Amino acid sequence: MIIRSLLDTDLYKFTMMQVVLHHFPQAQVEYRFKCRNKVDLTPYVDDIRDELAQLCELRFTEEELEYLRGMRFIKSDFVDFLALFHLNQKYVTVEPSAAGNGEIDITIRGPWLHTILFEVPLLAIVNEVYFRRTQPEPDLAEGRRRLEAKLTLLQAAPYADCVIADYGTRRRFSGDWQEEVLLTARDMLGAQLAGTSNVHFARLHNMTPLGTMAHEYLQACQALGPRLRDSQVFALENWAREYRGDLGIALSDTYGFDAFLRDFDLYFCKLFDGVRHDSGDPLEWGERMLAHYADNRVDPRGKTLIFSDSLNIPKVIELYDRFRGRCRLAFGVGTNLTNDLGYTPLQIVIKMVRCNGQPVAKLSDTPEKTMCDDPGYLAYLRQVFAVQRTA
Fold first, then answer.
1. Are 170 and 297 in the same domain?
2. Where are the Phosphohistidine residues found in this chain (predicted)?
């Protein structure tokens, strides 16, 4: 069994789920799977379905519920709801693609409140099934050698204040390997390991769980807000209303960075603790974000920039050297920590494509990350937010 706890997911799934419960309990959504690698996943469909069925048998334990209840930003009624919650397999289909091209179609469709927790464990299942079948005797010694070499770079004196976190659940080689990576990183880095996005491992090993919001939250607000042009502002204001100062990191690239800066005015600059980067050139993004704070008369040294886009340790060090002393810094490292044993990782995602029957989209600053199944809507979204087509 690959997923053995419903906490084996990213924290931001729970923080968004609480917002859904309190503000959008009637919302209906649809998610689609995409693999950017050219690999044949069809031989693994039955294994994925079997693991999905076992995932849907899981329930939160009393110990897990008490752990969530101990987080100051998690409200008691949400934990009470989770005590009754389980994932329902009827909302998910897993099929070989009708195109016969080796791709698989995974579709999640149903109430947002009851489907939001599928994404991360499903992606972890696809990864682990694939690597179990293609690498039945993995070279763990090579993985350990690579991991220790990376972490040693951060132990050098100039980087003693450089802090990283594990963001690698969805594309990990396996759950056991992610746990080993976390324990090794804690042993080698100490306080330089800020924590992990994985709530299960955070609970088991007394680490800090990390996360705020993901793209799907801002995407859904395209359909749930009062009008499309105000949907990003609507999403940020609702988030602040729910968490009252907690979880104050805004995601900057759902509508493209230019559109984000137009909406992220003095009010939001002061209201949010910082911003997360997840696409586009991180150096350019950081410089523009710091300039934006300065233009709004906000001292960037009191704000946090979080970098989380396809990071490796040399890139972390480059960004740390550029921005240290100018702001607070944090780095979320994903696949390069939890799936680097010498094999090519799967580049897989599950993204929301509809909410309440309406198309929604992510206008990424990295064009290949843009995902929408309705070209007409995508063009309209670009027009409304004055986003230039880059690819």
1. yes
2. 215
The backbone torsions φ and ψ at residue 386, rounded to the nearest 5 degrees and listed phi first, read 55, 50
Q: Provide the pLDDT for residue 391.
A: 46
Q: How far is CA 261 from CA 173, 221, 247, 363, in A?
A: 36, 18, 20, 14
Look at residue 141 and tell me whether its pLDDT is greater than 90. Answer: yes
Asked if 250 and 171 sit in the same domain, the reply is yes
Rounded Cα distance between 236 and 248, Å, is: 10
- Residue whose entry in the numeric block shows the structure tokens 């009637």: 26
Sign of CA dihedral 334, 255, 117, 242: positive
348: in domain: no
Say how far residue 15 (Cα) sits from the centre of its chain.
12
In a domain, 362, yes or no: no
297 DSSP assignment? T
380 within a domain of the structure (yes/no): no
User: 179 near 201, Cβ under 8 Å?
Assistant: yes
Residue type, 98: A
Helix/strand/coil percent split, the chain, to 5: 50, 15, 35
The CATH number for 190's domain is 3.20.140.10
Task: Note down the domain range covering 240.
Answer: 140-338
Residues 157 and 127 in one domain: no
Average pLDDT over residues 332-357: 97
Nearest to residue 35, comparing CAs of 131, 80, 102, 128?
A: 102
Residue-averaged pLDDT of the chain: 96
Contact 12, 239 (CB under 8 A): no
User: How sure is the predictor about 168, in pLDDT bands with cuts at 50, 70 and 90?
Assistant: very high
Structural contact between residues 333 and 167, judged by C-beta atoms closer than 8 angstroms = yes
- Average confidence (pLDDT) over 35-50: 95
In residues, how long is the chain? 391
Give the pLDDT confidence of 277-306 residue by residue, as tens digits: 999 999 999 999 999 999 999 999 999 999
Handedness of CA 344, 205, 9, 223 (dihedral sign): negative
Reduce the DSSP state of residue 5 to 3 states and report it: coil
103 and 130 together in one domain: yes
